From TrEMBL:
Organism lineage: Bacteria, Bacillati, Bacillota, Bacilli, Bacillales
Boundaries of every FeoB-type G domain copy: 6-168
Molecular function GO terms recorded: ferrous iron transmembrane transporter activity; GTP binding
PANTHER family for this protein: FE(2+) TRANSPORTER FEOB, FERROUS IRON TRANSPORT PROTEIN B
Annotated protein name in UniProt: 50S ribosome-binding GTPase
A Pfam family annotated for this UniProt entry: FeoB_N
Entry GO CC: plasma membrane
SUPFAM superfamilies to which the protein is assigned, alphabetical: P-loop containing nucleoside triphosphate hydrolases
InterPro entries in UniProt: FeoB_Cyto, FeoB_GTPase, G_FEOB_dom, GTP-bd, P-loop_NTPase
CDD domains: FeoB (cd01879)
């Protein structure tokens, strides 16, 4: 994020959690759609202002995971990994919270710039579901905000939380999944090698997990994008 450049927000979540409703609430009519390069996946992009700052928000495809087993999952994952949004808001359904948290934990393995947004809190209340967001915040290490996007409940608090994260008043320490002793040992061996390869461009632990899982696609995409970037730099040098 550079000065005078809009702050980039990604909106992630399972299908039918009210993610697009939140997107519409935040952006109003300031939005448009476009295809992700090379994929027939439509992304909605919009903008809004808050406390004198300009924001660009991208509504990622609704997915249950970031395992790249479908075009939607791959686009959502690659946007968070390579576009490096300043904040990723993960929207979850208050009435099916446990199922939705799988995606949130995957996002938190990739980036620490996360806000968990619990939507449909009014529906949860009708069903007698009580959510202790402060306890969740302590456990997960990221801000947890309860909202009802369609009724605009909690939106002012969400906007204030976004502002406080952007200005550095909120720091996060996302919960990291712990795996078996054998997996953790292999991760410890692999992470230093991954760090030498990608530096701070990607989360070394997350990439090491992908490689241990036999998924080399993200590394191949990284190398390809790196080569394309270097080619562009050389072209710019010739132009100068």
């Amino acid at each position: 994020m550079t000065q005078n450049q809009p702050i980039k927000i990604a909106l992630a979540g399972n299908p039918n959690v009210g993610k697009s409703t939140l997107f519409n609430t935040l952006t109003g009519l300031k939005q448009h759609t476009g295809n992700w390069p090379g994929k027939t996946v439509v992304l909605a992009e919009g903008s809004f202002s808050f406390k004198g700052r300009e924001y660009t928000i991208v509504d990622l495809p609704g997915t249950y995971s970031l395992l790249s087993t479908s075009a939607d999952e791959e686009v959502a994952r690659d946007f968070i990994v390579f576009e490096k949004p300043d904040i990723t808001i993960v929207v979850v359904d208050a009435t099916t919270l446990e199922r939705n948290l799988n995606l949130a934990l995957q996002v938190m393995e990739i980036t620490d710039r996360v806000i968990l947004c619990i939507n449909l809190i009014d529906e949860a209340k009708k069903k007698g579901i009580i959510i202790h967001e402060n306890i969740m915040m302590d456990k997960l290490g990221v801000p947890v905000i309860k909202i009802s996007a369609r009724n605009k409940m909690g939106i002012p608090l969400l906007l204030d939380t976004i502002d406080r994260m952007v200005t550095g008043k909120i720091t996060t320490s996302p919960y990291q999944m712990k795996y078996s002793e054998e997996v953790e040992e292999k991760l410890n061996q692999l992470i230093p090698k991954v760090e030498k390869l990608v530096g701070n461009d990607l989360s070394p632990r997350w990439l090491a997990l992908k490689l241990l899982d036999g998924d080399e696609s993200i590394l191949q995409t990284y190398i390809k994008r790196k080569e394309q970037g270097q080619g562009a730099e050389k072209t710019n040098e010739y132009v100068r």
